[in-house]
Amino acid sequence: MYVCLCVGATTHTVSECVARGASTSKEVAAACGAGADCGRCRRTLRAIIAASADREAGREAELQPAASH
Ligand code: FES
Hints:
CATH topology: Arc Repressor Mutant, subunit A
Number of domains: 1
Radius of gyration: 15 Å
Mean pLDDT: 93
CATH class: Mainly Alpha
Shape: elongated
Low-confidence stretches: none
CATH superfamily: BFD-like [2Fe-2S]-binding domain
Strand content: 5-15%
Bound molecules: FE2/S2 (inorganic) cluster
CATH architecture: Orthogonal Bundle
């Protein structure tokens, strides 16, 4: 699905930027151009970044050993 029509960036493109370390819409714009033009897609970019951060947090929680009581 297209996220940024100005540069034709898809959800996949943006997710790859986030996976490579972009953690703000500015960093995504620097990495692939999405969000660097009209800015209408920035809210969606932030949602993709937040969803990715949530997935990372979930993965880390799974890797943590259960606290012993
Ligand atoms: S739609 Fe992304 S910068 Fe315009």
